[in-house]
Amino acid sequence: MSMTRLISSLVPILTPEDTGSKALALMEENKLAELPVVQDDLYIALVKEDDLMDMADSELPLKDTELLLTYKPAIPATSHPYEALRLITQMELDVLPVVNFEQKYLGAITKDTMLQYISEHSSYETPGGIIVLEMEARNYSLYEIARICENEDVTILNAQVHTTPEGTMEVTIKTNRSALEAVVSSLERHDYRVKEVFGDQKNMEDVMGKYNLLMNYLNM
Description:
Layout: H1 20-30, E1 34-39, E2 42-48, H2 49-53, E3 75-76, H3 81-91, E4 95-99, E5 105-110, H4 111-121, E6 130-135, H5 142-151, E7 156-163, E8 169-175, H6 181-189, E9 193-198, H7 201-218
Parallel strand pairs: 3-4
Antiparallel strand pairs: 1-2, 4-5, 6-8, 6-9, 7-8
């Protein structure tokens, strides 16, 4: 997927002649913590709200400050969206400029744009269930997990892997089925630790129904 398809039309640009106060006003209006500075279609810098608020004179043009000299995060248009997600997360950005090889500014993607992309490409809206497994890194094999699931007529639609602070791996799999008792039992027979299961809504309703009956009894 081309990065240019993720560009938001809601990110205004600044020029070096714009003042700090104008930049802050645009940030407040658009609820963004950063804005790109562009001159003659070239990407110059990304200015941050915190730095603008520290300006001694907010009426100075940005070109007369040091704000355009050092901070210039960007992503090439040929990159994969996952790289954009990594940069936005690691650098805690609201806005990430997109450029070509000549540093021409093509637009910017936002944190909200990336959240929408994740939602659309992670099968979260597809009916089904979720299983969270925990294991040692040396025991991780998505092929093996998928084989066990397929033997129970369950297909993995998406998988996310996370390393915990303790050094173990947490694997979250989204499945095409919400009735997960059989596949959970099969995973446990193969010595996988099933940490959490989010599955059959009817089962959840049964549990909640029994809980409410108990609460009513205790309150009598």
